[in-house]
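Notes, Module 5: Reading structure tokens.

Key idea: the token line is not a picture. It is a compressed description, and you learn to read it the same way you learned to read a sequence, by spotting repeated patterns. We will look at two proteins. The first is printed below with its tokens.
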Amino acid sequence: MPLSHHDQVTLLKDILSNHQTDCCGSVAECEQLERLIKSLMVNNQVDQNVKSILQEVYHYSQTGAQTADLDGHITAHQENLSQWVDDIGQFS
């Protein structure tokens, strides 16, 4: 059974919050973010403001999945992670 767009947004926010709180993550989480974002970007129910944030998060997850220092990448984006979670929460 596929996740609703609301469930996808919740999962997206959970992963970003975990990265922000724990200052670490996995390549699998970055890949999950990419899949969630691809699905949300084609969904007409998703607010256009969220889609612009999703593009930033997609770039973050792509870079994170390819970096040799994922924890450093996450730490460097602490402010962005917090802002993205807040912004997505406002529009979803």
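Here is the second protein, with the sequence above and the tokens below, as before.
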Amino acid sequence: MKNKQNDMIRVYSDTEVNINRVSAELAKKGIPSLVKNEFQSAVMAGFGASPNAVDLYVNESDLDEASKLIEDLNQDN
């Protein structure tokens, strides 16, 4: 069986607030995503980290559509 997580590609890195907004917009379009929050993990472990250490991953098959949506969202701001 193929591991679906290995088919995921990082498409965006930013603050937690912005990543959550983009993730919500992707979900509205039916694009599943995975948020990897290194900042939160580091804080919980007692280490420091950059608050921009939050990454957003999508399935490789959704890469083009997700990239276009992210580009459009960034142009609006």
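Summary for the second protein:
- Residues 4-76 form a domain with the Alpha-Beta Plaits fold (CATH 3.30.70).
- The chain has one domain: 4-76.
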